[in-house]
Amino acid sequence: MASDASIPPATSSLRANRSPRQIVVFPAPVLLQRARTVERIDEFIRELVADMVRVMREEEGAGIAAPQVGESLRLFVVQARPATEERPAEPLGVYVNPSLAMVEGGVEPFEEGCLSLPEIRADIRRPPKVTIAATDLEGIAFTRTDDGMLARIWQHEFDHLEGTLILDRMTPMDKLASRKKVKLLREAYDDETKATRR
After folding, report:
1. pTM
2. Active site residues
């Protein structure tokens, strides 16, 4: 897994004439489709990861997936975490073409939010223990298991790669409670889309 030191600054000439990447908000189509496999780790992917880390930190997120910055690729990053009494420090994680190799335990509820669904939160039921297999930014395959918050973050970000949002995992009651906010997001997206076509 890559550390901060291996993430280059997002100054690549690949995006010299483009706007900086930012959070893509529901219901943008890129959030609702299955992302494509990363075929190779090249300058584009490294620059994308750097942008993702920047956006994640600006938005104070726990993790972010490539579709959330407009790229339909199977890649996500997870924020570093300081050590606690229960767990050692967690370095910045980069997960390329991840798969959930094993999911264990009965589902447990925990409140989640999403950078692509601002101001929407709900209890999402997920298994507590997960084994993930992925490749890091150096192209090295790895497998990890966690039974805490990291496992939940992995599942949340992996869902993004499948085109699944917390809206899809909410209870009917939570969907009803979020209906007004979802409607406002749809209206804002429609208005922005119409404005860019003028």
Report:
1. 0.87
2. 157
Per-domain residue ranges of the chain: 4-197
From CA 38, how far away is CA 69, in angstroms rounded? 15
Among 118, 124, 115, 103, CA closest to 166: 124
DSSP per residue over 85-98, as a string?
Answer: SSS--B--EEEEEE
10-residue stretch averages of pLDDT, the chain, 198 residues long: 40 56 96 98 97 95 97 95 77 95 86 96 95 96 93 97 98 96 94 76
Task: Please tell me the chain's helix, strand, coil percentages from 3-state DSSP, rounded to the nearest 5.
Answer: 35, 25, 40
The candidate with the shortest Cα–Cα distance to 67, out of 76, 58, 59, is 76
CB atoms within 10 A of CB 143: 11
**Residue-level pLDDT at 106:** 87
pLDDT at 198 (0 to 100): 65
Whether CATH 1.20.140.10 fits 4-197: no
Take residue 7 and report the two structure tokens written for it.
Answer: 């993430």
Question: Which phi and psi angles does 101 have, rounded to 5°?
Answer: -70, -30
Phi, psi of 132 (to 5 degrees): -115, 140
Residue 11 is predicted with a pLDDT of 42
